[in-house]
Design goal:
6 helices, 4 strands, 172 residues, 4-stranded antiparallel β-sheet, alpha+beta, disordered C terminus, globular
């Protein structure tokens, strides 16, 4: 294996129901799918896990170590989704060594990218991660900014049918 390129990710809290609830609620109405289930990133299961997560195009993910401690809180909103984002992480030998599992909170793939980014910051604040996990930085967003992002989502346009010329004729 090549030399490590980065420091090992700092360990955070154990990922329990409380931590998962913060990630789950951070996405608010953008959330879709089930309650986050654990996926294995152990070397023998990685390929299968990443293949499954290729189908999750947007959302938050919590990478954990063998003791269940949070090692990374991140977001994905791109082609290849969370599977591609985790592959990027696992190219770093120190992360590949430490990340043994991941929890995923799926988001609507049509969500505004800025809203997914804001959700990452909301989750970090809910878990009180700022300043606890090394140099990791998360976006800061106020409740008003969050609401503006969520409500800026384009809704389906329903155009009422136009009456045709024959329907406006008065019967004789």
């Amino acid at each position: 294996m090549s030399r490590d390129c980065c420091a090992e990710p700092v360990a955070g809290p154990v990922v329990d129901a409380r931590v998962l609830r913060h990630a789950w609620t951070a996405l608010g109405p953008l959330r879709c799918g089930d309650w986050p289930a654990p996926y294995s990133l152990e070397p023998r299961y990685r390929r299968e896990t990443l293949s499954v997560l290729d189908g999750v195009l947007a959302g938050l993910y919590l990478a954990v170590d063998a003791d269940g401690r949070l090692r990374w809180l991140g977001k994905a909103h791109r082609d290849g989704g969370i599977g591609a984002r985790l592959r990027d992480h696992l190219r770093h030998p120190e992360r590949a060594r430490v990340f043994t599992g991941v929890f995923v909170v799926e988001a609507d793939p049509f969500s505004p990218p800025q809203a997914i980014e804001a959700a990452e910051g909301r989750a970090a604040d809910g878990m009180r991660l700022r300043g606890r996990m090394g140099t990791r930085r998360w976006p800061t967003v106020t409740q008003a900014q969050w609401l503006a992002l969520v409500t800026s989502r384009p809704g389906p346009q329903v155009v009422p049918p136009r009456p045709d010329s024959d329907s406006r004729a008065v019967p004789a």
